[in-house]
Amino acid sequence: MSNTESSVSEQHEIRLEKLEELRDLGYEPYPHDFEVTHKSKYILDHPELIKQDDQDEDDVEKVSVAGRVMTRRIMGKSTFFNLQDSEGEIQVYIRRDDVGKEEYNKVFKKLTDIGDIVGIKGHVFKTGTGETTVYAKEFQLLSKTLRPIPVPKEVEEDGETKVYDAFSDKEQRYRQRYLDLIVNPEVRDVFQQRTEMVQAMRNFMNDKGYMEVETPILQPIYGGASAEPFVTHHNALDMKLYLRIANELYLKRLIVGGYDGVYEFSKDFRNEGLSRFHNPEFTQVELYVAYKDYDWMMNFVESMVETVAKELHGSTTVQVGDNEIDFERPWPRIPMFEAIENETGKDLYGKDLDELKAAAKDLNIELEDSYGKGKIIDEIFGEFVEPKLIQPTFITDYPIEMSPLAKKHREKEGLVERFECICNGKEIANAFSELNDPVDQRERFEEQARLRAEGDEEAMTIDEDFLQALEYGMPPTAGLGIGIDRLAMIMTDSDSIRDVLFFPQMKPEK
């Protein structure tokens, strides 16, 4: 056992003893509720709450606050401590003569620890040093903690300020997000911004008249993307089911059913590796609008994301690491093969499989035997083009082999009407003029089935019910998927997808 583990174990035992002592005193360390009337930020933002020297205490507005004890400065019969609630921290002053001798000496001073959750009732005053402070007239312990929270300590050494005991290990912060949120409250700002981002997108789509819907997570046939699924089993029906990899095919069924515009913020699941940009459980929003095409959808996407940036940052520009990203419309639009040729000098349009393999070899791209034309082009694009696209850019007109659900290009042979939005070197959005020809769709599915038989585990399967739906007629439709986690990384200047997920998937601890 390490020294740290030993210390935590010892503290745990000490706090268990304090818990029993509280109960022996007839004190309930876990009461059912506590009325909170004010939060720390509100008090600090409203100086009119502060008691003036000439005011009678009965004339001052009373406050009731609750939160964690984060620091204590005990001075005999009185103590200053910092209380942390959901909006920040505020100083509290507590005296023995105000709350009572036993409450102060036994419960607060002896049996309350850093990290315990307490309730305070009193009024607001300003100390001699000018700090807004809650003057405690009543004290109540609301939750006795049994484990010590790590409290950073700043120490001056050799003219430098050094911080000890900071809860800064990234992996532990992800594993114990609850502790991360306590000790590093600035993390809350990231998730607050993420929530505001999603709400801004929802408002934007609602204002256009599109309807938010829900579709199945458990699916008998997975589809809508090229990915390997998670597999589960339904006992009562004795059938295999899959966690959805996308909700596309169900949303398009609703367009067949007569809705003009539907969207869903969906949890999707793909059985893939972990990285800075990949979590097997992720969130995306998909939108389908009848009688529109991918050109219309490009205008929609840049308008919505520009609006989100303004609402979150008051500007179209967002600082992401060393890059200042500008979401002001219009964004560049570059055909995929043109973008590849610009970076590699190779024109891959119209090339057959052998020619593409030769080009990949020249570019030192490693290929697997199962790779078809679309996969090879995607590998070259991902290596030479995608990382260089920092400002939001639409890459358009993909090869048909890469896009089994997109409509054939109205002018260019072998291509489809598809775009991806690349920003900060990664895809954040994908959209099509949706394929609504059921005969063509069946042929595409059959080609995917052939690739799957040859070893491509991410190739799509044939969904007969979806094909049947298309045979009842789907109007021309534009479809869109935006990765919420990746967009949140950009909007919050976060380096890893784990920084924008409360509880990211982690490898098991040894």
Automatic annotation (TrEMBL):
Its cofactor is Mg(2+). Its EC number is 6.1.1.6. Residues 191-508 form the Aminoacyl-transfer RNA synthetases class-II family profile domain. Residues 1-71 form the PARP alpha-helical domain. It is an enzyme of class 6 (ligase). The keyword Nucleotidyltransferase does not apply. NCBIfam families: lysS_bact, PRK00484.1. This is Lysine--tRNA ligase. The lineage of its organism: Bacteria, Pseudomonadati, Balneolota, Balneolia, Balneolales. The gene is lysS.
